[in-house]
């Protein structure tokens, strides 16, 4: 088993992570991104064309993958339209081997340099989108927190709700209200499931806040 696999990454299924980069003025930027491995020392991700994250990666040719076990934090970073981001420089430190910041609260970090980018057009129910596949060469890996974190169903419900919310937001931008409503209805189902098993959880509170945005 490779170190990337031990951290939790593989080539079969994307892992939800926080990607940190530097803006042009050297301030930190972060976003929630799915990551997969290519081999034992290369990773890949798909970024929408025109996003700040892609611009930063193209400018700096580097970034850091942050593995976090906090599903609430992860989900909120993926929904800037719903949750305000309070980014402080003190929350970050500079990566050792690449020109990128990393989150001090990360459980593990993977520093990489961009090896190549491939532009693609993909289609789904929402419509056509231009994306860029980024392939990176790993330059450093560190495990910051070795304590185990058990799987929680409430966390799964929240992460799926956050992903559905991004689809609903994009559907609304493209004036596909019916499709957006379908995604919101699915979030309602996850909320109900979460309410049954974890009625006082932060995960349920966050799912409720996501739904409030669409009312």
From TrEMBL:
Stretches assigned to the DUF447 domain: 16-121
Matching SUPFAM superfamilies: FMN-binding split barrel (SSF50475)
Signal peptide range: none
InterPro entries: DUF447_N, Split_barrel_FMN-bd, UCP018747
TM segment ranges: none
Protein name in the entry: DUF447 domain-containing protein
